[in-house]
Amino acid sequence: MKHLLVIVFCFLFTHCASIQKSAKQGFLHCPQTHFSFDTLAFAAQATHQFMCINTGAQPLKIINIRTTCGCTVPQWDRNEIAPTDTTYISIQYDSRRSGGFMKEIIVYPSTQQKQLSLFISGEVSANPNKFIMK
Question: What predicted TM-score, i.e. pTM, was given to this entire model?
Answer without folding.
Answer: 0.78
